[in-house]
Design goal:
Helix content is 73%, strand content 1%. The chain has a two-stranded antiparallel sheet.
Length: 523
Amino acid sequence: MNRIFISINDFFGFIQPVSDAVWNFPTQFSWYSQIPLLGKMSLAVTVLLGIGIYFTIRTRAVQTMCFSRAVMVMQRRRTTLVGVSPLGSFLLGLAMRVGPGNIVGVTGAITVGGPGALFWMWIAALFGMATAFTESVLAQLFKERKNDEFVGGMPFYGQRILGGGRVVGIFLSIAFIVYALFNVPAQTFNVFTGIGMIADTATGETAGRQSGLYYGIAIVLIVSCAYLILGGIRRVIAWTNVIVPMMALVFCGFSLLIIVINLPMVPYFLAEVLRGAFAPDALFGGAMGVALAEGVRRGLMSNEAGQGTITMAAAVADNKHPCEQGFVQAFGVFVDTLIICTMTGFIVVLAHLWSGSADSAQWTLASASRIGTYLQSVQALVPASLTDVITIVLAACYCLFAFTTLLGMISFAEISANFISRTPRFILLIRVLGSLVFVPFGALTVLAGLELSNLWAITDLTNIIMVYLNIPILLLGAPLVYKALEHYRTTNGGRFVSSSIGVETDYWTETQPGSADNAEQQR
């Protein structure tokens, strides 16, 4: 069995250099890398940050509307049983956003780019809210009804915006399915890592990969994933509605406890972040460019703005106006990066792992070492009497982060697959591939004691590929978003029909069968 896994890893040996080349282009060229500040920023980073700034300008800072509007939309009672609630869609999206990247991504960014990377993660997220708004509105505009559900997302709006050719939508759907399913084994590995650390802390002993504990984890994980995924999107959402708020509140609560314990260090934390972002030696020594690049890159790993992944969650929601889900998903970017990632950053900066200590080298290793060093950071900042309790709780949160991301990946692959075929057999195939092929594969690699670095590198590569596929479509479809937003501002979210902005869609028609707006009118 080990030989098979190693052969698979060797087969994907080309992935890591390709991923590095795509992410770093054109910084590999000396003529470009010597340009002050800009020379540290790859094309991917420039595109992600630039598109967020562009959409912020064109939407007249739509971010300022997101906070109050998103909360209002999520609090509203539903009047139909079609699709899922805006709150359910928000939590499904957050299940994907709030993943292991909130810990390992933030710590990796700070280790490579210093504390200043956290500042640029904030900036990238604030501008990324406009990008998330744009892609989510497009997902709502071009969603389609499937029985008592909605389906949509990047393949659906991509097909319409790029001329209506079905081949385009099929290509985008396949690209997303490949992206999602190949990310599943890495998240499976992270689940094992989190539970393993809980057991190690509780017992004081390190369990081996061939131990009964790890086989038990494998069985429970595979069975639970199969139960949830094979039950369909509604079952997944019913569970994420419980798990996501719980894990977010617990993680934030314990992180706040650590901040309170170290409250006198808050000014130092802010000073280090700002100094790392703007100090003269950072600007002229190139560190600012590195911090900016790492902040944007790892910010994408966490909040996924511009990647097209959250569009699947945006499309399944039942809204009165397509802009409503734009506000909701943009708010999700804020919660993910400005709140949750900041709490991780506070712990890492204060523990000084970014300053060149021996432990910092562990950040270049697997995620198991990264989360281990993060927990060491936590232990350094709390009283010894609380160490074990807080370590167990945060390791459990990390496990749940990975588990909900895993569920989100497979669920979004299913939603995307609806573009290719909506037949029950085809949808069942996607569910089976995710829960009974890719999850067990990830579990088996853990039991075999392997870390398939080349396979995990697919995550980084597919992230940026999805960005490069999605951004051009967003630019072409953005005029429709601007019109929809103007309609929302003019009517204060009144009845919306797509023909009013010059496009015919399957759902936003005069009749809008099953829409919340019509249900209220019929009462």
